[in-house]
Amino acid sequence: MATKGIPKGPEIPDKSQVKEGEGRGGQPGLQHGMQAQPISDRLPTQHGDQDVLTLETYRGVGKFQGKVAIVTGGDSGIGRSVALLLCSITAPLCLHLMKLVTTHLQVAIVTSGDSGIGRSVALLFCSITAPLCLHLMKLVAALQSQVAIVTGGDSGIGRSVSLLLAKEGAKAVAIVHTPKEQKDADDAKKLIEKEGSEALSIPCDLAEGEETCKRIVDQALCDELQESLLTIAGGWQYIVPSIEETTTEILEDTYRTNIFPMFYLTKYAVPHMARGSSIVSSTSVTAYQGSKSLLEYSSTKGAIIAFTRSLSQQLAPKGIRVNAVAAGPIWTPLNPASREDENLEGFKGKDAPLGRIGQPIEAATSYLFLASQASGYTRLADLGVLMAASWEAIEASYMTGQVLHPNGGFVVNG
């Protein structure tokens, strides 16, 4: 039975953290001081006809258990791959026993299921010991041995990205944060280390310029080439109702923080990045839709899109992929730290087609998708964040210069 209406997400009772007279109005905000903690490693999930979303711990597998699968063109190509993967996602725990457990999918509709591969796939859904090649079901830790630099990695989307990278086997994660965010950084560091990855806390202000960005890279990456990930997730925003009210300080601070570090960090990171490395930058839905009170912020996000596309062409011959994520309304410390109460209430996602604000993990899985490079095809992006939650090992190797849009359903082009 279908749910009547849109299921509700976690309640957001927080009020504004804006502090008049404080530099940057209290930005970037402190996660440990938020009443409704942003969700870093549990995916809001709908089961059956429930009216409130359940928070499911991210495990890297099992996100389609109990679901109905309809696979058009399931006999070959993308459809075949999707159908086989649907069969496989409950199998990894039993691989060491050299047998497969029954799939948890309740109903499967496979087109072209009367013959060939389609018929085999249909039979596998019914089989307890499906004779499927083990290598198709073995979940590979796609990010093992990688070293990641995540700006803004102490909280919000950056923390969730850092934590998911650790869960997928990243060798080390360096989180870059402002000195005032040290407690959030310490909390994030403990979570990363709990997953078995090394964690490095680098306190600094990216707006300080090129030398600071060089120091970050020098601390995080060794001299020799290595497969690396640079994720640029931190940023500032000022709510300015009219262009007549903007100031040189606001404009320069926004650009020094949001766009200049893209150039500097990349400049010094690329010489350390081996073939197979990737860069994932953070743009925003506001770059596509505009925002009347975020003119300065939105313009930096538009610049990031152009930066991503142009840099992707420059680095493709080196085997380094460059992509971006344009998140919509996501519950992060930046928002209560930069919005007055009235503006914050309007931001809580009620205008999104899905009727709620997103959680950091719902954007972070897009970063994880783009960071993975084992094998894949661009059109897999059409399946969105759900695939990123389960199949990192087979994802984004054929994607560069692209933008993903975890935005609650806003339709954008590009």
Number of helices: 14
CATH class of the largest domain: Alpha Beta
CATH topology tier name of the largest domain:
Rossmann fold
The radius of gyration is 22 Å
Total discrete domains? 2
Structural class: alpha/beta
Secondary-structure element series: EEEHEHHEHEHEHEHHEHHEHHHHE
Count every beta strand, where a strand is a DSSP E run of 2 or more residues: 11
Could you tell me the strand content as a percent range? 5-15%
Shape summary: globular
Q: Strands of the biggest beta sheet: in what spatial order?
A: 7-6-5-8-9-10-11
Mean model confidence by pLDDT: 75
Question: Strand count, sense and closure of the main sheet?
Answer: 7 strands, parallel
* Gap from first CA to last CA: 35 Å
Helix content: 25-40%
CATH superfamily of the largest domain: NAD(P)-binding Rossmann-like Domain
